[in-house]
UniProtKB/TrEMBL annotation:
SUPFAM superfamilies: cAMP-binding domain-like, Winged helix' DNA-binding domain. SMART domains: cNMP (SM00100), HTH_CRP (SM00419). InterPro entries: cNMP-bd_dom, cNMP-bd_dom_sf, Env_Response_Regulators, HTH_CRP, RmlC-like_jellyroll, WH-like_DNA-bd_sf, WH_DNA-bd_sf. One of its GO terms (molecular function) is DNA binding. PROSITE patterns: CNMP_BINDING_3, HTH_CRP_2. Residues 155-228 form the HTH crp-type domain. Signal peptide: none annotated. This is CRP/FNR family transcriptional regulator. Residues 22-142 form the Cyclic nucleotide-binding domain. The keyword Isomerase does not apply. It comes from Enteractinococcus coprophilus. CDD domains: CAP_ED. One of its GO terms (cellular component) is cytosol. Keywords: DNA-binding, Transcription, Transcription regulation.
Length: 238
């Protein structure tokens, strides 16, 4: 893990604080003040932000790159819970509850972080209570997403895959043909883990949806050929 000069993130409009939802209620001047408290760090691909059971006393903001969050099972197997994107925060639960981390966080793609230590962030919350409210809202949104995933995990892999594809950002849209193209943001094995299945089952589900004419597959690029049928699959109508 390498530190970089604080001035690198405070003298640009693209500093990490401006990207983060929990700081959105602050004025630009207040955001710049918060940015001076951030401790920038760069992690190489595969380097751990934190492991399970650590008391980091920190909250991490993803400035660039991505961070994978895993739940490590007693067997040693890792389940991918989510992937934090630029502007996302990592470690709020451990920070708010003063408890050890429940998951393992691993950097991807040369990730750049802004790190807030407990003392600084506590002072910010006392000064700007809206930050705490937004942190709790973020955790609430994440809990809702987890509940949604738990319900989905009772469904077939085909249903889980359809739901995942419909949530991805549109890469290309051809209204005349009724086609939407998306790109898998992760390796297929990681998408499979997110969906609570194996890479083999994930590949078979892709094949089934392709055979039914619902999607087209070109490596990591997926064309959604029949949106109505995909939505019907989610609704249990097919």
């Amino acid at each position: 893990m390498r530190e970089i000069p604080i001035r690198d993130i405070t003298l640009h409009d693209d500093n990490c604080v401006r990207r983060v939802a929990i700081f959105a209620g602050l004025t630009p001047d207040q955001q710049d003040l918060v940015a001076t408290m951030a401790r920038p760090q760069i992690l190489d691909d595969g380097e751990l932000v934190h492991s399970v059971g650590e008391r980091t006393g920190k909250m991490f903001v993803v400035h660039s790159g991505q961070v994978k969050l895993y739940r490590v099972l007693p067997s040693g197997r890792k389940l991918l819970l989510r992937v934090a994107q630029p502007g996302d925060t990592v470690g709020e639960h451990a920070f708010l509850t003063s408890s050890p981390t429940l998951d393992e966080a691993e950097a991807m793609d040369g990730t750049r972080l802004c790190v807030f230590v407990h003392e600084d962030l506590t002072g910010l919350i006392q000064r700007y209570p809206d930050i705490a409210h937004r942190m709790l809202r973020t955790l609430g949104d994440r809990l809702a997403q987890t509940e949604h995933q738990l319900v989905l995990n009772t469904q077939s892999v085909d249903v889980r895959l359809a739901d995942y594809l419909l949530q991805q950002p549109v890469l290309r849209h051809s209204p005349s043909e009724g086609l939407i193209t998306v790109r898998l943001p992760l390796e297929k094995k990681d998408v499979a883990s997110l969906l609570g299945t194996t890479p083999e089952s994930f590949s078979r589900a892709l094949g089934r949806l392709k055979t039914k004419g619902l999607i087209g597959v070109d490596d990591d690029t997926i064309t959604l050929r029949d949106l109505d049928a995909l939505e019907d699959l989610l609704a249990g109508d097919v």
